[in-house]
Amino acid sequence: MHLSRAARIAALTTTSALAAATLVAMAPAAQAAVITGTTMVGLGSTKDAACTDSAADTSPDQTVPLAADGAAKTASLSYANTVTKAGSPGEVTTVTASATSTVTATQAAGQLSQVVIDTSYSASVNAALGAAQTCKVSANIGGQTTYQFDLVAPAYVTVTTEARGGVVQSITANSLSSLSTVRLVGNFVGGPHSVGTASALLPAGVNYITQYVHQDQVDAASPTNTRTSTTGSAKTTITLQTPGIAQGAATGDGGKYLTLAAGRDCTAGTLAGTWTKAVGKGKKSKIKKAQFFVNGTQVATVKKPKKATTTTLTGLDPSKAAAVEVKLTLVKKKPAKKHHAHRADKPTKGGGTATVEQSYLPCS
Predict the structure, then answer these.
(1) Where is the composition biased (Basic residues) (predicted)?
(2) Cα–Cα nearest to 106, from 6, 208, 238, 227
(3) Pairing mode, if any, of strands 73-85 and 205-213?
């Protein structure tokens, strides 16, 4: 199994456990491309020098090139080896292992938009002599996905990593030059089922993500080891979006009165909302007042807005996501006038409240 130096460094984060590392960074100058890179899986085994392998290659790997075409690219490998010891007929240890890494990359507007990396693996070491074996056989599983991509415009990247059994580590950065100056966002989670998320703003130009490492090891039984088999899976989803863009559709029953913008103005630090024709105008306005909240803090109040006008929120913190809520107080209609003595007044209509809610990505 031939892992790069960076992969070996990442693998040091755990021993005999799943390690998954993702590094998002700005790369040195290189030829621009939507995506170029590979995914690989590697399997293998090690033993005491006094023992013999049946497998001709004890560290096979498979590498598959990537493309941002929405089609899954899969590297898959199986491994089997029998280890024996001359002069000891009963000293037989069998090794079996398999690993799969599937990468699906998609693009939008001429640049990378999402990469999904799914890996799964299994391995076992079965010694006929059990804990009395002396060949000290270990089975190893590893893999990595390394790629570079060109951004025609800055993108807000979110890396979500999930593991079922083991440990997942994710790191995002804008430079590899010096850890003392680089902007890092990371997470480290573990357990039977764990999830972690990291986000950062990537500049326009050539960037790369390297690497996703899926690493594990099991050993033959010994007086101090009973873990002789393992299975695991991990998933990383990398999503690149326009900074400040809205996350999904707006919610709430006030959407017919107010349309919030599809994204923040990251340059001006503002967010606009347009009042629809359902609002009415002048004395016929259906909205008594509108209160605007950003991340739970009231930032503006508008009284009797008019249709086709725009309300702009200013001073939004570019480094923070914006959870926007607009509380609308509706105007109560006055009861109709009596035209005849025998006709009772009609009941009051309208009034009450309505809301509009929308969340936006940070700008930086």
Answers:
(1) 333-343
(2) 238
(3) unpaired
Q: For residues 353 and 331, what is the distance between their CA atoms, to the nearest angstrom?
A: 9
Contacts of 8 by beta carbon, 8 Å cutoff, 6+ apart: none
- Are 16 and 216 contacting, i.e. CB atoms less than 8 angstroms apart? yes
* DSSP annotation of 265: B
pTM, two decimal places: 0.79
- Residue carrying the six token digits 């109560």: 332
The domain segmentation of the chain, as residue ranges, is 5-241, 258-360
Pairing of strands 21-26, 167-173: parallel
N-term to C-term CA, the chain: 39
162-219 pLDDT, tens digit each: 888 666 666 655 554 555 545 555 566 666 788 888 888 888 877 766 656 667 899 9
Q: By the 8 A CB rule, do 1 and 44 touch?
A: yes
Measure the CA–CA gap between 190 and 181, rounded to whole angstroms.
Answer: 28
Token pair in block for residue 43: 């399997």
Are 92 and 42 spatial neighbours (Cβ–Cβ below 8 Å)?
no
User: How far apart, in whole angstroms, are the C-alpha atoms of residue 319 and residue 363?
Assistant: 6
CA 60/CA 75 separation, integer angstroms: 12
CATH says 258-360 is which class? mainly beta
